[in-house]
Amino acid sequence: MASSKGGSSGSGSGSVGLEKLSVEQLKAVKEQTDLEVNLLQDSLNNIRTATSRLDLASAALHDLSLRPAGKPMLVPLTASLYVSGTLDDADHVLVDVGTGYFIEKTMVEGKEYCERKINLLKSNFDQLFESKIVFLNLNEMDLVDSSIIGRSSFWGFRGGGHSSISPLPPL
């Protein structure tokens, strides 16, 4: 990403392209990279949340399969609202497949559905986490940060900080 903005020919490292960018351009690259990393982090968090919800659903199905028919129980309507009910048929469940659609499945099919979805989400999480995009963005952010800090401290925009650019000799 940065090397294409920097105008390098694609050979060499991304830092060569970053060295040719102005401080404003580097800040724009950093903002874009920050946005991409935040989006990836949000995606990872969403996958974690969905996986934990499916784990809870799988555990609930297991607990439900152990209950005898006709036993009174509390049925959750929302996270904080429960109503009294009795278990009529522990062999069949309704599975929420999204956007308000439910499918009637046997208890075994419901558990298998949860396990398939959990495995899919874990696979997606692993692929997203290990993808080169995550590591490239983190490396680019470090390069951009060090380049901005170096240039800013050299030109006196920020105090302190280590400059990676050697000062020009006096005229």
From TrEMBL:
GO molecular-function terms, A-Z: unfolded protein binding
Superkingdom in the source lineage: Eukaryota
Any Pfam family: Prefoldin
Organism: Ficus carica (Common fig)
Stated family: Belongs to the prefoldin subunit alpha family.
Designated name of the protein: Prefoldin subunit 5
Transmembrane annotation, as ranges: none
InterPro entries assigned to the protein according to its UniProt record, in alphabetical order: PFD_alpha_archaea, Prefoldin, Prefoldin_subunit_alpha
GO cellular component assignments: cytoplasm; prefoldin complex
